[in-house]
Amino acid sequence: ANSGRAKEAEPLLTEALELRTSSLPPSHFWVAAAKGALGECFALQNRFDEAEREADRSLAFDSTDVGVLTYKAMARLGRGDLAGARDVARLATARANPADALAHIGRFYDLYWLLDSTDQRRLETLTDLPFGGSAAERTLVLAELHHSRGDRQATRRYADSSRALFESQLRDTPGDAQRIALLGVALAMCGKADSAVRAGAR
């Protein structure tokens, strides 16, 4: 679903859920995981009511799953419910490990702006660890956060740090599409639009 082919993925995920529910107990982890994946698939197709329904079904098994809570927040955003989405973001940081929840919300789908001012300040204090050990991703999130506040100097400082780190990583893994995409974002936030376009064309 994350490859941009959510519509094609839907019947496969539906079948996987049916197989798991027919052979495993309702509370089994793999049943909850299938519900969460189907919820993400619906969110990526802008089918927000169905996405939140599947998210809730998955959260009934594990209420601390930050990934599923993120899709639930996305579903509420898709319906225009900003206050409801922010409630879900606060719920994620209360239920799960706070550092992991803040980093996840900051990293995935650029939802850092959902966090209230207190949680944004907490996000700024995190180490690389909850970002999967990636200083490149942490500094890119901080660049985006400062950009949302209109702080150009801090935006470029963090974006340039992120750019250098991604360029270093790509010397070892030149075909890593995800890192190439993130490098493009970092370059754009540094004000290097032409370089960002070239990175996206790689």
Describe it for me?
The chain is an all-alpha fold and 202 residues long. Helix content is 73%, strand content 0%. The protein has helices at residues 6-23, 29-44, 48-59, 66-78, 82-95, 98-107, 117-124, 135-148, 152-172, 177-189, 193-200. It is globular.
Task: Please describe the biggest sheet, giving its number of strands, its sense, and whether it closes into a barrel.
Answer: none
Runs in which pLDDT lies below 50 for 5 or more consecutive residues are none
Any idea what the radius of gyration is? Answer: 18 Å
Order of helices and strands: HHHHHHHHHHH
Helix run count: 11
Q: Share of helix among residues?
A: over 70%
Mean pLDDT, rounded to whole units? 90
Helix/strand-derived category reads mainly alpha
Classify the beta-strand content into a percent band: under 5%
Strand tally: 0
Q: How would you describe the shape?
A: globular
Taking the alpha carbons of the first and last residues, their distance comes to 23 Å
